[in-house]
Amino acid sequence: MSIQVNHITKLYGTQKALNDVSFDVNEGEITGFLGPNGAGKSTMMKIITCYIPPTEGSVNVCGYDINENSLEVRQNVGYLPEHNPLYLDMFVKEYLEFIGRLHQLKNIKERVKEMIELTGLQIEQNKKIGALSKGYRQRVGIAQALIHDPKVLILDEPTTGLDPNQLAEIRNLIKKIGKQKTVMLSTHIMQEVEAICDKVIIINKGKIVANAPASQINNLTGNRVQLIVEFDKTVNKSQLMKINGIAHAENTHANTWIIECVAGKDIRNDVFKFAVDNQLSVLTLQKNEQKLEDVFKELTKKPI
């Protein structure tokens, strides 16, 4: 395991930011760490990276304990905080060389060149950081997190505030990095998680409410299927509910219905048969499978 979190609790005064949190992140995995604002994501990341200590529990990163071997943990971790703390008056290349010296790298010039190429900063390397767009500042932040060649990369909302083009570029960069390193990232963009993450962990009010491979996360709430059906005539709800496999039906407007199916049940053929038996025509039928966003909303709205 690259990261092992064991029964972590964090108190700020009487407020419990994290409550007995445990999870693992495997080597070579891109893990999405999700949760509403204030759920404890940033606190957990700061504990993993040795920025703040836990109140209770332990964390091991690449075999090193954060309390007993914090220096070794920092040597193996690259960290991009939510608020990217850059020196805006420094030039890109100058800043990366400065970070390289802090890490006491021997091949600083060569390593800076590699990071500039990896993060696509070639045309911006001689600019002041303060003159860069948000997207390029994020690239600089990722470059500084990677310059000492850590085994684990922690990214706290790396795509916040980016335009769609910048978002796609940073997403592709993270996927590229994830082929060689363990990556843990927090984000509010569900499509991003669906596109690049191998595993999803959801935290709510300081507790883990989901921990599963990305391919299985939809099953946590029953993997329900929703149909949007438009008939050519008015349909009575009691009539419609006689179709076997309908959990819920709602008439949204005119003759259009949103039908929620029982988990694992495909009732599209039954809907067409119902229409024929009742001399109706199906004008449109759209199948909407449950997405990560739906799972997230359901799990983070439940009382803990």
Oligomer: single chain
What is the CATH T-level topology of the largest domain? Rossmann fold
Please tell me what the overall shape is. elongated
Largest sheet: 6 strands, mixed
CATH class of the largest domain: Alpha Beta
Question: How would you characterize the overall build of this protein?
Answer:
- This protein has about 300 residues and is α/β, with parallel strands linked by helices.
- The chain folds into two domains: about 5-220, P-loop containing nucleotide triphosphate hydrolases (Rossmann fold, 3-Layer(aba) Sandwich), CATH 3.40.50.300; about 220-300, YebC, transcriptional regulation domain (Alpha-Beta Plaits, 2-Layer Sandwich), CATH 3.30.70.980.
- It has ten helices and 14 strands.
- The chain has helices spanning about 40-50, 70-75, 90-100, 110-120, 135-145, 165-180, 190-195, 235-240, 270-275, 290-300; strands at about 5-10, 15-25, 30-35, 55-60, 65, 75-80, 150-155, 180-185, 200-205, 205-215, 225-230, 245-255, 255-260, 280-290.
- A hairpin with a 2-residue loop joins β4 and β5 (about 65).
- α3 crosses α4 and α4 (about 110-120) packs across α5 (about 135-145).
- It starts with a strand and ends with a helix.
List the main descriptive attributes of the protein structure presented here.
Alpha-Beta Plaits; 10 helices; 14 strands; 304 residues; Rossmann fold; 6-stranded mixed beta sheet; single chain; 4-stranded antiparallel beta sheet; alpha/beta
